[in-house]
Structure formats: structure tokens, C-alpha cells
Write a structure and sequence with these properties.
The complex is a heterodimer of chains A (168) and B (132).
Chain A (H helix, E strand, L loop, with lengths): L2 H16 L6 H15 L9 H27 L20 H13 L3 H12 L4 H8 L3 H20 L10
Helix pairs in contact in A: 1-2, 1-3, 2-3, 3-6, 5-7, 6-7
Chain B lengths: L10 H9 L4 H14 L6 H22 L16 H4 L47
């Protein structure tokens, strides 16, 4: 696998975990790519490469958030969240890209830990055991986060009636 | 407790996100930034070797130059030395021409010129003192 392909994999994994609209997304990708490059010699193939990269991205994400939280507490930087438009949209009028962006915006409102578990399970199709290995938690914790994350996601989607989807 | 307690969102929700493919140009831009920011430093051990050998060589050169023998200065074009002057013509004063040289007053002549004896390092012999 070339360096470009490996970077693309890191980019996609981080994009799945934090959603690409996040303001720290580019910096997180760079940090995760650096970690992957540094640790790729130690990758022994005991797990799938995407799972390993997801694990690296997840740790980088949590470390970044932890650092940023302390930084904000220490220096009292009040960064306002990006304004969200509450104007109701109709799904028929929204094109695919806008709808995906709004769904990502809803996903961003979940906590990092809950979002990671929900996205890895429901979007990427990992099973609970794999996710437990990626996030470094036991399966009961993963199931708990999955249940709570789904519940929060439904609640957030109910606040946005424009994003109600048609049940398949 | 299983994950079936809270069912997943319908697949139409996730398929919307799946269909939103990543822009390859964004990846290229990020990869370019990554390759430009990635530094390739020398191995630390090699840098330490360079520093140690450089320090030893520097101390040796300075101590040799300050040791009094000045063997290092022989190879520097600062002072003439026999080793470099052996193949060259012997150094001479530039003789002034008769036109440029000012007229020197002639020395006074007082009687016949007597050549002074060649100075020698031997002390003058004094006659022994006469004692009574």
C-alpha cells in the first residue's frame, strides 16, 4: 500500500469518526497520519488494517479533545459553536450533499465516544467485539454507548423534523 | 443488555452518509500538507557522533596552535617559513634607485679610519692586580 493510499485510509477513518465538517478535522487527520506513520512498523497484522487505523484515529481524537478541553479551561477561550440554521428544509428540496451535511451536523452533537461507537457499528458495520478492540473498552461498555448513542441520535433528529426520513 | 434495546436508525439515514464520497482532491491536499510538514531528521546517534568528533578535532587544533611550536601555522599563509621559502628566491630589500634616494650627508673625516675590532662574546682580559 502506497503512502498516498494509507493517508487516504486515515483520512476516511477520521472523517467517519469526527465527520468532515468539524473545524479540527484537518488537524486531526494530520495528527493521526503522523501517529500511523510512527507506529506502522509495530503493526503486526493481528487485526485488520482499517481496525488498527480506526484505533489510532480514536486515540488521537480523544487526546486532542482532552487537550483542547484543558486549554479552554485554562485560558477561558469561548468559541461559539457554528450557527446552525433552524429553517425547516424539505427533504425533497435538499440535494444529497446538503442532506448529508445536515446529518453530519446532527452526528457532531453526539459525544465523541458515543458517536464513534454508533458510527462504527451502524455505518461501518463493525461488530461489538471489534469496536471494543478499537476503542479500548469492554463489550458491555460498547453496548451501553451504542444504546445511549442511538437514543441521543433519535432525540436530536426529532428536533429537526425536516430530517425525518421515510421508514424503509 | 444488548444493542437491540435501541434499534438502529433506518438504513436510508446511513446510506445518505455512505453515498457522500470523499473528495479525492481534499485527500491530495491533506497528503501534500502532510508530506511537506513531515520532517526527516538525522538519527540522533549520528548527530552526537558529529558533535563529539568535531569537539575533539577542535580541541586538538586549538591546543596544537597554542602549544608554542606553531606547527599548525606553518600551513597557514600568515607568516613566511623556511619550508615554504625553500624553493623561492631569497627575500631582499628593495634597493632604492639613485634618483629616488635623497642625498646623504657625507660623514666627517677625522684622521685615518680605524677598523673596530670584531666584537666577541669573550670578556676582556684584565691584567692581574698588583698586590704588595
Amino acid at each position: 500500500m502506497s503512502e498516498r493510499e494509507l493517508f487516504g485510509l486515515v483520512y476516511r477513518c477520521m472523517g467517519t469518526l469526527v465527520t468532515r465538517g468539524d473545524r479540527d478535522f484537518e488537524d486531526l487527520v494530520q495528527a493521526a497520519a503522523t501517529e500511523v506513520w510512527r507506529a506502522r512498523e509495530s503493526f503486526q497484522g493481528r487485526s485488520e488494517l482499517p481496525s488498527w487505523i480506526y484505533g489510532v484515529c480514536y486515540r488521537v481524537l480523544l487526546n486532542h479533545r482532552r487537550f483542547w478541553r484543558r486549554f479552554q479551561l485554562r485560558f477561558d477561550i469561548g468559541l461559539a459553536d457554528e450557527p446552525t440554521s433552524d429553517v425547516p428544509h424539505s427533504l425533497d428540496l435538499l440535494d444529497e450533499r446538503e442532506r448529508a451535511e445536515m446529518l453530519r451536523e446532527v452526528l457532531r452533537r453526539l459525544s465523541d465516544k458515543h458517536r464513534a461507537v454508533v458510527v462504527l457499528h451502524d455505518l461501518e458495520g463493525f461488530d461489538v467485539d471489534d469496536i471494543a478492540g478499537i476503542v479500548g473498552a469492554n463489550t458491555l461498555t460498547v453496548r451501553s454507548r451504542l444504546r445511549d448513542g442511538r437514543r441521543q441520535l433519535r432525540r436530536l433528529l426529532k428536533l429537526r423534523p425536516s430530517l425525518v426520513w421515510k421508514e424503509a | 443488555m444488548t444493542n437491540e434495546d435501541e434499534p438502529s436508525l433506518p438504513q436510508s439515514f446511513w446510506s445518505t452518509l455512505r453515498r457522500d464520497d470523499t473528495n479525492e482532491r481534499d485527500i491530495d491536499r491533506g497528503f501534500f500538507r502532510f508530506t511537506m510538514s513531515r520532517s526527516l531528521p538525522r538519527p540522533p546517534a549520528r548527530v552526537i557522533h558529529y558533535l563529539v568528533f568535531g569537539f575533539v578535532a577542535g580541541v586538538a587544533a586549538v591546543s596544537a596552535a597554542a602549544s608554542g611550536r606553531y606547527w599548525l601555522l606553518r600551513w597557514l599563509p600568515l607568516v613566511p617559513h623556511e619550508s615554504r621559502a625553500s624553493s623561492a628566491d631569497p627575500w631582499k630589500h628593495q634597493a632604492a634607485t639613485a634618483e629616488d634616494a635623497p642625498a646623504l650627508p657625507s660623514p666627517p673625516v677625522r684622521g685615518p679610519a680605524v677598523a673596530k675590532p670584531f666584537p666577541s662574546n669573550t670578556p676582556p682580559v684584565t691584567p692581574p692586580a698588583v698586590t704588595r
